[in-house]
User: Which sequence fits this backbone?
């Protein structure tokens, strides 16, 4: 076995529950702003944040919410997101975070699959939330700003086993298939915060802008939890708007901006950027999808700050690789070395042999941040994490002799639209539910702005007439914006293997040939 170890010394990972660890400095930080609602300026200090978390946890306890119970959080970024998330963890519960753009059917699926007892949302989404909750195990829907449960502050963390008890249940499509609940223990999350903070070293002099959604593991851990552990000010945005984003960086003196490639592209090219004073920025860090070296360098030049990137998965809490922020460690286009306490292998995707430096193979990862499993889906876990604890990422990587990794391709079939995961299988299942469609396949197409977009290949049912526009309209009315089919082609047949598996690589090769 050829293993690549981290060049960084291992860090000590405390054997503690997550929320007391995150709030350890809250009393010391006192009136310092912890979370600021960007659009309104409404602020929670560290003292207020801890008080509200404890009161929410007390309110849950009064309702009979107990260790292992699940609360679904269906909301955009707000200061109260941290209150609900950490209040649930303090009460011994598990938060399943839901994409706030999910429609009723998508929300209902996650509620049913997770078995959530309570659902917390915002007023504009309340009707949709209540409709989705009907027929599920949800006992009550609470609305932020209206009726969140509050009671006597819960003085102590409900006792949990950090290694066994879950704190978070975000949903991910993993390497293949439909979205699955990723079981993240207190220890997984604490470990990754310690591993990441060893490199990022966020301090109470920092201000972070939370434009990436907290429901996504990147926003949840790298911005919300890591920012709070570091004592930073976190400025929240409920949705991305370039002008507001730039205004908040300027006015709130943001020092660190955690972004995704589509935002990086806008910052590098949009003329509006020149109208703002972004001199407070010390770091723009990109993740969730690969950022090209040329774009990384162009962005650094325009912003006049350090631009860096890293890599991770929901299944790894999420960070496994990052460029160190030390002088001279820049390597545009790479994701950097492995984090402390993290081992990697590069494995031939076909033969299974371990590969050395400068060879392309599937990236495998082992470390304390690797998930406990998929919720109620042991079979899916076996396909992703082997018996020795190696997480098979589904990404093709290459590592150089200095231990810097680059993601060069994907084994997995997922489409990454603006950092969001789109499972082809989900769209294919929807397409073939149309009575006029006999068969369908979906593949990613490269796109400068989004990274990738879904393209559908559709076979019309005998005697039926479908058009690309009618197919795209059908999908549009049934899924969230980021999952929509952006291109469609009517074909005579879908290429398949003898076992019936869709040969998406054949379609991808056809598209590449057509594009020259």
Assistant:
């Amino acid at each position: 076995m050829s293993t690549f170890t981290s060049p960084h010394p291992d860090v000590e990972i405390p054997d503690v529950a997550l929320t007391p660890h995150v709030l350890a400095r809250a009393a010391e930080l006192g009136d310092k702003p912890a979370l600021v609602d960007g659009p309104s300026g409404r602020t929670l200090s560290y003292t207020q944040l801890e008080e509200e978390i404890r009161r929410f946890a007390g309110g849950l306890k009064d309702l009979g919410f107990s260790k292992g119970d699940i609360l679904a959080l269906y909301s955009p970024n707000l200061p109260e997101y941290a209150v609900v998330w950490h209040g649930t963890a303090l009460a011994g519960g598990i938060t399943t975070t839901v994409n706030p753009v999910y429609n009723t059917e998508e929300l209902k699926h996650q509620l049913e699959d997770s078995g959530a007892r309570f659902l917390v949302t915002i007023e504009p989404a309340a009707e949709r939330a209540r409709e989705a909750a009907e027929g599920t195990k949800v006992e009550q829907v609470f609305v932020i700003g209206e009726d969140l449960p509050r009671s006597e502050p819960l003085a102590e963390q409900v006792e949990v086993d950090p290694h066994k008890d879950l704190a978070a249940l975000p949903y991910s499509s993993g390497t293949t298939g439909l979205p699955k609940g990723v079981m993240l223990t207190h220890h997984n999350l604490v470990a990754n915060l310690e591993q990441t903070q060893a490199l990022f070293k966020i301090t109470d002099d920092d201000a972070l802008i939370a434009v990436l959604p907290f429901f996504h593991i990147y926003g949840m851990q790298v911005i919300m939890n890591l920012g709070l552990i570091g004592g930073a000010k976190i400025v929240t945005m409920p949705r991305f708007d370039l002008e507001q984003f730039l205004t908040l960086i300027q006015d709130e003196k943001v020092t660190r901006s955690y972004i995704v490639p589509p935002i990086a592209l806008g910052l590098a090219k949009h003329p509006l950027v020149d109208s703002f004073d972004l001199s407070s920025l010390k770091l723009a860090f990109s993740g969730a999808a690969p950022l090209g070296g040329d774009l990384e360098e162009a962005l650094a030049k325009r912003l006049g700050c350090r631009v860096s990137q890293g890599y991770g998965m929901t299944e790894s809490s999420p960070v496994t690789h990052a460029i160190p922020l030390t002088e001279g460690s820049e390597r545009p286009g790479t994701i950097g070395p492995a984090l402390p306490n993290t081992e990697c292998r590069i494995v031939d995707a076909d033969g299974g042999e371990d590969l050395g430096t400068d060879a392309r193979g599937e990236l495998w990862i082992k470390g304390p941040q690797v998930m406990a499993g998929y919720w109620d889906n042991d079979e899916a876990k076996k396909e992703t994490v082997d018996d020795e604890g190696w997480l098979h990422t589904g990404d093709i990587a290459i590592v150089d002799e200095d231990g810097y990794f680059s993601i060069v391709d994907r084994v997995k079939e997922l489409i990454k639209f603006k950092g969001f995961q789109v499972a082809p299988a989900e769209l294919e299942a929807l397409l073939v539910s149309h009575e006029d469609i006999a068969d369908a396949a979906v593949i990613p197409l490269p796109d400068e702005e989004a990274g990738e977009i879904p393209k559908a290949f559709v076979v019309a049912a005998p005697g039926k007439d479908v058009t690309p526009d009618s197919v795209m309209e059908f999908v549009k009315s049934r899924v969230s914006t980021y999952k929509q089919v952006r291109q469609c082609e009517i074909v005579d047949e879908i290429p398949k293997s003898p076992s019936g598996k869709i040969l998406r690589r054949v379609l991808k090769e056809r598209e590449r040939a057509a594009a020259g």
